[in-house]
Design brief:
Elements: E1 18-23, E2 29-36, E3 39-44, E4 47-51, E5 68-71, H1 81-87, E6 93-96, H2 98-104, E7 108-109, E8 115-119, E9 122-129, E10 145-152, E11 155-159, E12 177-181, H3 190-200, E13 204-208, H4 217-221, E14 229-230
Parallel strand pairs: 4-5, 5-6, 6-7, 11-12, 12-13, 13-14
Antiparallel strand pairs: 1-2, 2-3, 3-4, 8-9, 9-10, 10-11
């Protein structure tokens, strides 16, 4: 039987990250900072949304404070109380899966299917994220963890979390930007990630959380879908 991911151990790092900028449908700026693994920052109209901040991947004490923090699940490579504390400020909103909330001890629990507009500028839908393959279901069991579908300025962003190519991806609706995990044994194979892209059909697709996967083959496998722009950033 496969064992869960090992605990994260903090190491020193240089603070240098890839950044992409978009215009949202309301004409405002969306800036995506690619920290590493499953950790992201979405900057929108002067607000900062952190996804799964983990101290292994950045010195969060030197980064801007968070208006919103999203936690997908309880594993140590996605949930790090120290990193959360370093970006938190008065008024920071934390949205988190139930099992992760029990470990962190704070945050508003959102479950698969929950939709909310906690702030005037942001809509959140928590969506399923789980393993399908029989010998992997212990990693991310169905119903426990979250992916997130965000709407910022009319632009829809799908952050899949740790998941395989689950059928629920077919029902996300229009997706402008998607983040799809591609590393075995915990998330998807390249073949599964291609299937996920076929279901989601985003305009821009970022593989993330890809570890040692030969990620350069991913855009090659999606050449039959010219409407999907695959962008590879430093997210291993």
């Amino acid at each position: 039987m496969m064992t869960p991911p090992p605990p994260v151990q903090e190491v020193a790092m240089a603070q240098s990250f890839d950044v992409d900028t978009f215009k949202t449908r309301d004409g405002k700026t969306l800036e995506i900072t690619f920290i590493k693994h499953g950790s992201l920052i979405l900057g929108y109209d002067g607000k900062n949304i952190y996804v799964d901040p983990v101290s292994l991947y950045a010195d969060y004490s030197k980064l801007p404070k968070a208006d919103v923090i999203l936690i997908t699940h309880e594993h140590a490579d996605h949930l790090d109380p120290k990193a959360v504390a370093e970006v938190e400020k008065k008024g920071t909103r934390i949205f988190i899966s139930e099992s992760a909330q029990k470990k962190l001890g704070k945050g508003q629990v959102v479950k698969n299917g929950d939709e909310l507009q906690p702030l005037s500028w942001m809509h959140i839908k928590a969506v399923p994220a789980y393993n399908l393959t029989p010998d992997r279901t212990m990693f991310h069991p169905k119903g426990r963890d979250n992916g997130y579908l965000l709407t910022l300025g009319g632009t829809r962003i799908y952050i899949a979390g740790d998941t395989e190519d689950i059928p629920e991806m077919s029902y996300l609706g229009k997706v402008d930007i998607a983040f799809i995990p591609v590393n075995q044994p915990y998330t998807m194979t390249i073949k599964q990630a291609v299937h996920a892209a076929e279901m989601i059909k985003p305009h821009v697709l970022y593989p993330y959380h890809y570890g040692d996967t030969d990620i350069k083959q991913y855009p090659e496998k999606l050449k039959a879908y010219p409407d999907i722009e695959v962008r590879i950033r430093q997210m291993q």
